[in-house]
Structures are given as C-alpha cells and as structure tokens.
Amino acid sequence: MAQVAISTCDICVGGPGDNYCEQCQQLFCDGCKISHLRTSMSKNHTFKSGPDNKSDVKQNCKEHDENFIYYYMECDTPVCKICAIKNHKKHDLSEIKESTKAITSAVKNNIETKIRNLQSNIAKIDQGTQKYQTDVKEVIQAIQGEGRQLKELIDKKVEVLIRSVIANETKNLLTLESIVNEFQTALDKAKEQQKMYVDTQRIKDNTKMLQRMKQIKSEIKVIDEKLVPVMPSATYAKRKAIEIELEKLFGELTFGEIIKRKENMRQHKNDR
C-alpha cells in the first residue's frame, strides 16, 4: 500500500510544512514561519496550522481577483499585476510562464537523474552478484579438486566446507535480493513521478502546472536513493596436501560480507 508523503516546508525544503500562509499559498516549517513574519512585506500574513492546513489551489489573486501573471522569486509565489505594482515594485519578479518553464525543466532533470542513478546502481549490483556467484563456484571447484585427493575422512571435511560456502552464499544472495528490491521500489516511484510529469504537460493553465510541478518536485525529493553496498566475496587459499593434521590439509575459507554503505551525502536543494 502506498504511503502518503509528508508535506515539507516549501522554503527550506527540509522541515515539516505544518504552517500554510494564506497570502503566499505556501507551506512553512516553524522556523521559516517566524522568519517570514519578521519580514516587513509579510509581517501581517496569516497562517493555518495542522494536518489540513493547505487550502485548495487558487487560480486568481485572492485580494484583487486577477489572473497571476508574475512570480515573486523570494517568496516563491505567483502574483497578479496589481500586486506587482502595489507590493512588489522593487522585488525580483519573473513572468509566471518562464518560472513554470524553469521548474518544469528542473523537475524533468531531477526525474531523469534519479532514474539514471537508480538504474546504474541496480546494474552494478547485478554485475557484482554475477561475479560473486562465479567466485563461489570457483571456490567450490577448488575445494572439490583438493578433496578428491583425500580419502573418506577428507571427503567429510569437503562436505562441511561446501555447506559453509553455500550457506554463506544463500544468506548473501537473500540480502542482495532485498537490496535490489529496495532500489526497484525507489525506481518504480521515480517512474510514477515521470508519468505524472508527462501527464502534467497537457495542463494549459500555467498556475495549475506550476503547483503540480512543485508537488512532483517534492515527491521526487523524498525518494530514497541508497548507495550500492560493498559486494560480498568468497576466496579459498589452497594448501599443498601433505601428511599433517587433517585441518592443515585444507585451505582457509574467507568471506567478504555485504556492507551497506551509510548515506554520506545530502541531496542538494533544487532551484525553485
């Protein structure tokens, strides 16, 4: 069952978006809300809080009932021509069409990069899995080749070693399969956002498209993109069979366990 994504702050894109500014039509975390209310242009803005804080998207300016034609870069919100003259004379404004085009391009690049990275990681695991399975086969063959030189007692030792290799292989392959499934789940989510992005291109209204692109952008950011783990390995150091203790007739098995790499990089904020 798909989980509902938690809304994040539209300003810092990090904290929970628990506060909705009715004038800017944006979600704010508690810290960004305080900063917003300290700004002279927005000190009188009103907020709604709680799980149902976000109002329906408006196509016209609430104050002047005019179409949105400009985009206020600092507040990341659309404005009408009257707001632009009265409240935003010295502010950095752009045409809403251009802003929509920019965020559309950014979302497209984010989706493509996410999918490309996930597909690359899955391919690396597949290649590593094949190499690992080849290593396991070679180790088993080496054990069997050395075991054939020994008598019945040595055959029993061979069986013990092979069981150890196969058991380790089974455990590691199950872990690798689980990791691949995690990558595949993330890839499927990214492809869902890609489909939504394609469907959004048919929207005629720029404001509605802008809101949809911001939604897709937010959904893409929460897709988990893990690093490829250090792949397991199996080696066997052979020894020359001589008349010594049974344990010394065989080489030593060594296993490279799967190591899940910790996330050591943060996703950069995408240009709004």
From TrEMBL:
Pfam families: zf-B_box (PF00643)
Gene Ontology terms, MF aspect: ubiquitin protein ligase activity; zinc ion binding
Every B box-type domain range: 4-50, 56-96
GO cellular component: nucleoplasm
InterPro entries: TRIM45/56/19-like, Znf_B-box
Protein name: B box-type domain-containing protein
Organism of provenance: Mytilus coruscus
